[in-house]
């Protein structure tokens, strides 16, 4: 909830700028065509666990994921580069069961969680001109995930916190609300992988997430 | 402009980080309980016929110790007796040479290792003996209270230079936020025996 408020505040600080119509003094190409410009995107994501992460630890989809990115849309190039930070969270409750270990038998209701705060750099390749109203793109990203693995046995917890390499590949599209406008919608599907091995997780944390976002661009 | 934007992003980022989740806030009292049991794998429980139990609960709080016998303690002791009897052991007084002794403690500990400060407190009740204690668990390093119920082998005492010591052949810990809930006492006692089928002698 707090996060949504933060994003709303962020958008709130951005929206008033839209009201100021820029006078059209020249009939030359839009500044968005002529200059390298900036683009900020706030995304809400739904994520589905994949692979052994899904099989061994959490198989429940998560809708508590958010991210913010900022990018340079490069002049004379189909590429943009930028950075993205986010928060993703997976959780699963397992009913009371017995867990056998060298230390004994534990009977508990287990709550499995993984939180990640990914910090990534990314590059987008755009298929259409950068001022077209629909801008499909593919994305590759890499960076670090500040992660917290916590398994609760009842109210007791066993925790591991690490910073690990993460990467992602995605495809999506930007949709400008109006031609040559500054505001638009971003839709993206992305595969995320984090190199991590601990306790139940033996082959990393992988998920596919679909996101819907709002972007604002300026120069 | 970009500098400003990245600064904003940083602030929002810190905001995201500081949101802490509480995934266990919806657990019921019963669900919050964790039962941990362990036993000496070499022990042959069928050799034991009789047991005795402490007459009050040992309260250990960091470096202080005492005993307590209020309603919840009485309920716990009574239910442990019921369970031991249904496992096939006969309840006898502590002067009648019981084969095993049941110790019940309520431990509040803020040390990392729950077991280190314990050994010296047991001696008194069972007649001033020393006490050998296998270090079974060490991996929940939190500050909290727990019930610790252990079964001491009186039949096979170890002789050491400092006197006789008894090994704990079975131990159960009950942990979690609701261990002081008297309505759950029966459930707690039944659970630790329920998951320790090897104790059955009949």
Automatic annotation (TrEMBL), chain A:
Domain of life: Bacteria
Signal peptide from the UniProt entry: 1-19
InterPro entries referenced in this protein's UniProt entry, alphabetically: OMP/PagP_B-barrel
Keyword terms: Signal
Classification via SUPFAM superfamilies: OMPA-like
Name the UniProt record assigns to this protein: Outer membrane protein beta-barrel domain-containing protein
Organism: Dyadobacter fermentans
Automatic annotation (TrEMBL), chain B:
Keywords: Signal
Sequence ranges assigned to domain DUF4136 in this UniProt record: 37-195
The keyword Isomerase is annotated on this UniProt entry: no
Signal peptide boundaries: 1-20
Name of the protein: DUF4136 domain-containing protein
Pfam families: DUF4136
InterPro entries xref list: DUF4136 (IPR025411)
């Amino acid at each position: 909830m707090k996060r949504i408020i933060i994003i709303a505040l962020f958008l709130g600080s951005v929206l008033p700028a839209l009201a100021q119509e820029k006078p059209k003094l020249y009939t030359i190409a839009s500044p968005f065509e002529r200059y390298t410009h900036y683009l900020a995107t706030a995304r809400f994501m739904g994520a589905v666990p994949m692979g052994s992460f899904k099989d061994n630890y959490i198989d429940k989809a998560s809708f508590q994921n958010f991210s913010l990115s900022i990018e340079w849309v490069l002049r004379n190039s189909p590429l943009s580069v930028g950075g993205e930070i986010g928060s993703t969270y997976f959780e699963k409750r397992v009913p009371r069961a017995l867990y056998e270990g060298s230390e004994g038998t534990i009977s508990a209701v287990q709550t499995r969680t993984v939180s990640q705060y990914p910090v990534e750099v990314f590059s987008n390749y755009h298929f259409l001109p950068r001022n077209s109203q629909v801008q499909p793109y593919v994305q590759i990203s890499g960076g670090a995930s500040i992660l917290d693995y916590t398994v609760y046995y009842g109210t007791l917890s066993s925790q591991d916190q690490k910073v690990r390499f993460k990467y992602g590949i995605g495809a999506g599209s930007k949709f400008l609300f109006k031609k040559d406008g500054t505001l638009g919608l971003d839709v993206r599907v992305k595969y995320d992988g984090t190199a991590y091995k601990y306790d139940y997780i033996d082959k990393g944390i992988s998920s596919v997430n679909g996101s819907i976002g709002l972007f604002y661009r300026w120069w | 402009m970009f500098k400003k934007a990245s600064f904003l992003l940083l602030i929002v980022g810190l905001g995201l980080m500081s949101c802490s989740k509480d995934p266990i806030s919806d657990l019921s009292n019963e669900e919050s309980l964790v039962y941990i049991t362990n036993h000496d794998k070499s022990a042959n429980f069928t050799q034991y016929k009789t047991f005795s139990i402490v007459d009050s609960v040992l309260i250990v709080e960091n470096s202080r110790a005492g005993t307590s016998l209020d309603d919840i303690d009485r309920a716990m002791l009574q239910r442990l007796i019921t369970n031991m009897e249904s496992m096939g052991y006969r309840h006898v007084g502590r002067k009648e040479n019981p084969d095993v002794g049941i110790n019940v403690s309520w431990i509040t500990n803020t040390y990392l290792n729950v077991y280190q400060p314990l050994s010296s407190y047991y001696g008194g009740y069972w007649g001033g003996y020393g006490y050998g204690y296998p270090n079974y668990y060490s991996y929940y390093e939190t500050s909290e209270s727990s019930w610790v119920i252990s079964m001491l082998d009186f039949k096979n005492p170890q002789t050491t230079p400092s006197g006789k010591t008894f090994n704990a052949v079975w131990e159960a810990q009950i942990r979690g936020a609701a261990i002081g809930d008297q309505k759950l006492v029966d459930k707690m006692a039944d659970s630790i025996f329920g998951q320790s089928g090897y104790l059955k002698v009949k």
